[in-house]
Amino acid sequence: MLYLAPGTSVSPEMTRLRTELMNNLNNEHRAAHQTIAPQLEARIASYELAARMQLSATEALDLAQETQETQELYGLNDKQTAPYARRCLMARRLIERGVRYVQVFVEGQRWDTHADNANATKVIATETDKPTAGLLKDLKRRGLLDSTLVVWGGEFGRTPVSQGGNGRDHHKQGFSLWLAGGGIKGGTAYGTTDELGYHAVENRVKVADLHATMFHLLGLDHRRVNYHLRGRDERLTDVYDAKILTPLIA
Fold first, then answer.
1. 75 in the Ramachandran plot: left (φ > 0), alpha (ψ -120 to 50) or beta?
2. C-alpha R_g of the chain
């Protein structure tokens, strides 16, 4: 649920007075706590950004502005695909407005198929395939795909053997995800598993390798993206000798 408007109407004068009071309180707190001024400034900036986002989100997320053809491309006209289609179309509208990082989720833990894996996977795939394809096609025809890195995946895979007879358990030894746009070489498969699909055996990719590659495609050196925490410089790829997956780069 998106709450983009207040539950009760607020007059412009009341909004102005609230803002003025908040500014006065912030100034008083800033003057009395000079040692934490940088943290306070960062928090104020975050709240101000959130307020600006709320003001602009109503227009950005108004899917009625889209043509019927575009809505059908994503699957908004089908009750089975509509929920995920709305998320994907919202993502495209945010991307074209300059939002730098967008996440699209399915509701709940639908891929967590510890039981009835065959049927559950078919259902969730049916709900997500068309909207996902629509998003990629729409980004491409609008000239946005080349500058947008699309990453589809989860935090682990599913076992190639059954759990409880008809389910699949969590599995980290070998699983797949896919990338598109943003400098990725399309149509490339990288890495293989053993004959059972249990272990990755060729061109094994660590999560750190994936992150290093994503950073590279975004124009960043993963070894230099650090933040200081409790006396130690931390980074996403941590102590691993992460490698950029050059065969995937166009």
1. left
2. 23
Please return the burial class of 191, using the count of CB atoms within 10 Å of its CB with bins 0-12, 13-18 and 19+.
middle
Residue 197: left (phi > 0), alpha (psi -120 to 50), or beta?
A: left
Would you write out the chain's pLDDT as a tens digit for each of its 250 residues?
566 666 677 788 988 898 899 889 888 888 887 777 777 888 888 888 887 877 788 888 999 999 999 999 999 999 999 999 999 999 999 999 999 999 999 988 899 999 999 999 999 999 999 999 999 999 999 999 999 999 999 889 999 999 999 999 999 999 999 999 999 999 999 999 999 999 999 999 999 999 999 999 999 999 998 888 888 888 889 878 899 999 999 9
C-alpha 58/C-alpha 66 separation (Å) is 14
Structure tokens that stand for 125 in this block: 């795939």
User: How many whole angstroms separate alpha carbon 28 and alpha carbon 105?
Assistant: 41
Question: HEC string of the chain?
Answer: CCCCCCCCCCCHHHHHHHHHHHHHHHHHHHHHCHHHHHHHHHHHHHHHHHHHHHHHHHHHCCHHHCCHHHHHHHCCCCCCCHHHHHHHHHHHHHHHCCCCCCCCCCCCCCCCCCCCHHHHHHHHHHHHHHHHHHHHHHHHHCCCHHHCCEEECCCCEECCCCECCCECCEECCCCCCEEECCCECCCCCCCEECCCCCCEEECCCCHHHHHHHHHHHCCCCCCCCEEEECCEEEECCCCCCCCCCHHHEC
- Residue 240 burial (C-beta neighbours within 10 Å; 0-12, 13-18, 19+): middle
